[in-house]
Amino acid sequence: xxxxxxxxxxxxxxxxxxxxxxxxxxxxxxxxxxxxxxxxxxxxxxxxxxxxxxxxxxxxxxxxxxxxxxxxxxxxxxxxxxxxxxxxxxxxxxxxxxxxxxxxxxxxxxxxxxxxxxxxxxxxxxxxxxxxxxxxxxxxxxxxxxxxxxxxxxxxxxxxxxxxxxxxxxxxxxxxxxxxxxxxxxxxxxxxxxxxxxxxxxxxxxxxxxxxxxxxxxxxxxxxxxxxxxxxxxxxxxxxxxxxxxxxxxxxxxxxxxxxxxxxxxxxxxxxxxxxxxxxxxxxxxxxxxxxxxxxxxxxxxxxxxxxxx
Length: 310
Known about the structure:
Layout: E1 10-18, E2 33-35, E3 46-60, E4 72-76, E5 84-87, E6 93-94, E7 104-105, H1 106-115, E8 123-128, E9 133-138, E10 147-151, H2 160-163, E11 168-172, E12 176-179, E13 191-195, E14 221-226, E15 234-238, E16 246-254, E17 257-263, E18 278-286, E19 289-295, E20 303-309
Parallel strand pairs: 6-7
Antiparallel strand pairs: 1-18, 2-17, 3-15, 3-16, 3-18, 4-5, 4-10, 8-9, 9-12, 10-11, 13-14, 13-17, 19-20
């Protein structure tokens, strides 16, 4: 019997699926991807599924690094008085050079956000190509002008990591300038997750105890995808070890499937802003051996048992 590169124990199934084809995915084919009824060839659900994995995926970098949840910080002119909320417009940003096909420049956006809370025309924001850090100066035309920024600790509600700042207060009194202590990371987290409520709890994929979504237990995450491109491009993922599968135990039947995306340490479903993602799902299904038991008359005390491959 030909084992097709595997063995005689399992049948191999491969599914190419796209959230755009799924009417249950919500608005416009964005994450999540959810089939309420998952049938093979329009016939029956898969049974005796024993192993699974994501072989590859194509994910558009159409999500926003600066969202309505993490795009605010606080500004003060003296560092001790009232603090005013400053807002960076939602979207994705380049550094200080406008490139063809790119979107917004972070130096202009940060300058506008600060000046909306202080005095227009007195703040300058620059990006150092060598150190890859932002520098802020202001107050040269207003004696005694001070400038202080304050960022929340929680990176899920703060733009500090992407701008290169630490939590807390940074700034100067009077004429002067100050720089972000860290380099910018305008592309956002270096990785995202492909998740599944159907398969996630069945796979042996663990994250650290500090990860709030799982606290060290198995969770919905089934693949960790490096972000290796800029916004507006496509993230391509290929499983680095395609010969190994997650053992999903004694699954009797897969009648529905679901996949959704999350980024970094966030538990939120990643919004692709109307674009779809696609992936290639591989399943190992145990070949069925049919036990046919036939009992004779009890008086004969006889059982006929026949085994045949299915």
